[in-house]
């Protein structure tokens, strides 16, 4: 499966819509795009994973790297995801406590940019529903 990356801007937020699979083969393209967005001046980034069909540990590492870059610049980094199979990966790895994760782009735009990141928020900084037994 190929990886598609589309970028847009809404107000002060840069939105990166990701479609396809994020794995060892495609993650370098995602990393390159995130770095380019930061170099181009993005400080409030929303990564929409709604079209992602597969996410492996390499992809998780790229997303963590993007979060670290934004924090170093006092920026914000939010993920949009409502797919249970992808959300489960974040819960299993504990990354749901690190990232701000919301179900829609509208929710991401409604959340005030959080330069400290989710780990500094009293509510855990995420909107991932609790795990269900499936």
UniProtKB/TrEMBL annotation:
| Lineage: superkingdom | Bacteria
Q: Which PANTHER family match?
A: ANTI-SIGMA FACTOR ANTAGONIST TM_1081-RELATED (PTHR33495:SF2), ANTI-SIGMA FACTOR ANTAGONIST TM_1081-RELATED-RELATED (PTHR33495)
The cross-references to NCBIfam families, in alphabetical order and at most eight, read:
ant_ant_sig (TIGR00377)
Which family does the record claim for this protein? Belongs to the anti-sigma-factor antagonist family.
Question: What protein name does the entry list?
Answer: Anti-sigma factor antagonist
Does Phosphoprotein appear among the keywords? yes
Instruction: Quote one Gene Ontology molecular function term.
Output: anti-sigma factor antagonist activity
Disordered: region residues: 111-134
Q: Which UniProt keywords apply?
A: Phosphoprotein
The segment(s) forming the STAS domain are 3-112
Role description: Positive regulator of sigma-B activity. Non-phosphorylated RsbV binds to RsbW, preventing its association with sigma-B. When phosphorylated, releases RsbW, which is then free to complex with and inactivate sigma-B.
InterPro entries in the record: Anti-sigma_ant, STAS_dom, STAS_dom_sf
